[in-house]
Here is the input.
Amino acid sequence: MAANLTHLGAQGEANMVDVGDKEQTTRTAIAEGFVSMQPETLKTILAGNAKKGDVLGTARIAGIMAAKKTHELIPLCHPLLLTKVSVDIEPDHALPGLKVTALARVTGKTGVEMEALTAASVACLTIYDMAKAVDRAMVISGIRLVEKTGGKSGDYKASA
Here is the structure.
């Protein structure tokens, strides 16, 4: 673990990291999150019978849109020209619920971890919003960085 917080200046003030001298490399990040729900809620979503419409399609698009706006939501993030964002949503009947996996990629001077995490988070929030009429007890959990590649700090893979 790095000893210094890169977003703090000499006196502890918030600071946007200067990436001007860094090399452009291809950087990829994968994040995940889970939405636990009643089995009947999962059946309703998978059948496409939610009152608000296509839960999975809407959540997928919301996650992609959120990744593109991460710099507007997280104060010290750099705006990035993302080259790829994908959001995959799979049913997990053992949970029961849905697993969200988001991938973000860029060729640039800074990483895309925050974009992947934002995409996964907003996709989970959208699932909750779309299905809350039938299940307000849904739980969003496990938002985390699963993997990242590229950049000065090297690759990272979360333990299972």
Notes: The chain has four helices and five strands. The longest strand covers residues 25-36.
